[in-house]
């Protein structure tokens, strides 16, 4: 995925890659050479490479377990960070990253790149015509062969893939999840070590339900990577095939899909726009915690045999875990100062406290 980011950045008119960091320096050097980035600084320390290359920001495309340590090093060195999903392996680690963003005053945004598709924006408009919602469903059935960390994970569907769909639900429905019941399993023919299939039923704040079903080892009838969606409301229904077909069975017509940056280019555009304007981007670290909580809540429910898990309770328990595990005085002090995790993730986000600079840049 690092190569995908580098290719996109090389062609971008709003950013350019000036350094590449990897623990595997041979891989970093080969990647730089193969992409023709001869001037790029290469190294294994993000703060060192960022300083030597004159970088203005860091894009973190490491494995999820390394997101926290790399984000912390970058933010403590004074760099804003755009971090690949999932933000962290646990909510407790995500809350720690909220604290570090608070302490350093740097922007930490999570790249939930599947929010950036022109037809998803049209689908959101369609859902907006339905009035109060009753139910949303999303089905994801794929045959994914991706040797590497995914095939060794305990929850390759929920942690690595469903986080996109859960985050898309929040974007599309404009509603927030309250609780979840989930079951997950691994079909007998699966080439994944962990559970490659799951169903989850979320209750939303409005009272509507989100029914999710997915599998990464389905050798037939593949859906889009974006899943297939249906929404039912008081004025009618809407659908999206995850690609370019949006349906609306209700009054009104739909707007044309706009020409806008897609996927990771969309994430980059929002990140750079936020740095230039001082506004708070979607999926600024605080907002992203709830998308992550949908994943962890689903796994907790599965471990409890399908019991209902209330996400707000899970987030508060995670704050207690984060405080107990903390080894840095400044982070521990800040986490303990929050009267609740809910307060911590509603503290003024980056953007509400940053004015754009005269040069149009963030720093
Ligand atoms: N948005 C998407 O559609 C999408 C698609 C694929 C992957 N991803 C995300 O991108 C990230 C990377 O996935 P991938 O498939 O490229 O993984 P990968 O294992 O192929 O590559 C990760 C790289 O990070 C390096 N690394 C690990 N720890 C490091 C550290 N502490 N410092 C520096 N480098 C370190 C590894 O050496 C490796 O080269 C994951 O978070 C994944 O979920 C997102």
Automatic annotation (TrEMBL):
Domain Gfo/Idh/MocA-like oxidoreductase N-terminal, chain residue ranges per copy: 10-110
GO MF, one annotated term: nucleotide binding
Keyword ATP-binding: no
InterPro entries tied to this protein: Gfo/Idh/MocA-like_OxRdtase_N, Gfo/Idh/MocA_oxidoreduct, GFO_IDH_MocA-like_dom, NAD(P)-bd_dom_sf
This protein's record includes keyword Cell wall biogenesis/degradation: no
Ranges where the GFO/IDH/MocA-like oxidoreductase domain occurs: 128-238
Key words of the record: NAD, Oxidoreductase
SUPFAM superfamilies listed in its UniProt record: Glyceraldehyde-3-phosphate dehydrogenase-like, C-terminal domain, NAD(P)-binding Rossmann-fold domains
Family stated for the protein in its record: Belongs to the Gfo/Idh/MocA family.
Name of the protein this chain belongs to: Gfo/Idh/MocA family oxidoreductase
């Amino acid at each position: 995925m690092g190569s995908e980011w580098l290719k996109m950045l090389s062609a971008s008119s709003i950013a350019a890659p000036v350094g590449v960091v990897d623990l595997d320096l041979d891989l970093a050097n080969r990647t730089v050479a193969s992409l023709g980035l001869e001037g790029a600084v290469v190294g294994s320390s993000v703060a060192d490479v960022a300083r030597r290359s004159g970088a203005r920001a860091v894009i973190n495309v490491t494995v999820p377990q390394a997101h926290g340590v790399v984000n912390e090093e970058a933010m403590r060195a004074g760099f804003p960070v755009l971090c690949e999903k999932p933000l962290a392996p646990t909510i407790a680690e995500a809350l720690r990253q909220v604290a570090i963003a608070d302490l350093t005053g740097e922007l930490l945004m999570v790249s939930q790149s599947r929010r950036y598709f022109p037809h998803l924006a049209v689908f959101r408009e369609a859902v907006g015509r339905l009035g109060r919602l009753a139910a949303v469903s999303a089905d994801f059935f794929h045959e994914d062969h991706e040797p590497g960390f995914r095939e060794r994970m305990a929850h390759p569907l929920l942690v690595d893939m469903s986080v996109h769909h859960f985050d898309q639900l929040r974007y599309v429905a404009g509603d927030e999840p309250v609780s979840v019941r989930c079951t997950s399993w691994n079909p007998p023919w699966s080439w994944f070590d962990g559970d490659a299939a799951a169903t989850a039923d979320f209750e939303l704040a409005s009272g509507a339900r989100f029914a999710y079903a997915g599998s990464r080892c389905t050798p037939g009838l593949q859906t889009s990577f974006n899943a297939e969606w249906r929404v039912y409301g008081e004025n009618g229904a809407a659908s999206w095939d995850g690609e370019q077909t949006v349906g609306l069975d209700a009054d009104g017509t739909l707007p044309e899909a706009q020409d806008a940056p897609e996927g990771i280019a969309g994430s980059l555009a929002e990140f750079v726009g936020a740095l230039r304007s001082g506004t708070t981007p979607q999926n600024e670290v605080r907002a992203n915690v709830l998308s992550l909580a949908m994943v962890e809540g689903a796994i907790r429910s599965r471990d409890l045999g399908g019991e209902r898990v209330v996400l707000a309770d899970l987030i508060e328990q995670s704050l207690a875990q984060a405080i107990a595990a903390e080894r840095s005085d400044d982070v521990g002090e800040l986490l303990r100062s929050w009267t609740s995790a809910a307060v911590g993730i509603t503290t003024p986000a980056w953007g509400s406290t940053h004015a754009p600079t005269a040069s149009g840049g963030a720093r």
